[in-house]
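Researcher: Can you fold this with zinc ion in place?
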Amino acid sequence: MNTDLDELYQSVVLDHSKRPRNFGELADAVQVHGDNPSCGDEIDLSVKFGPEGAVEDVKFKGMGCAISQASASLMTMKLKGKSETDAREMLRAFHDLVTTEVAEPPRMLGDLRLLQGVRRFPQRVKCAMLAWRAFEQALARNAGGDSVSTETDA
Ligand code: ZN
């Protein structure tokens, strides 16, 4: 097997789970709580959207297994500063990465590509997707929200 990649995967996952990036909470942001009862993972995601729906800032707090926390940490690094279109594209690409056979993972996923291996472990897919599901909810809430929107459901 690919030992180098396995080692890289482990070191990146461990690094991010031990020292999560963008850890914390944002004021005036969309807050989403997500949990994955089958593993005991939890996450509180704060996303600050710009007027055009871009991800201006994103932070998370959470606890649980290394995969769930590393995925959240890597996700926040990648999403920060992205336009809504790019953020949605990344969400879709990451979901594909961990659920289907992807020969060449898109480069924009960066180190997130190292999580590709969780595909072989269905229980782990939920861990890896936890933060992304929370982000998906944040997107939906920002689009629909509690406020009156004139946009159509596209
Ligand atoms: Zn987990």
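Model: Folded with zinc ion in place. The chain has a mean pLDDT of 91.
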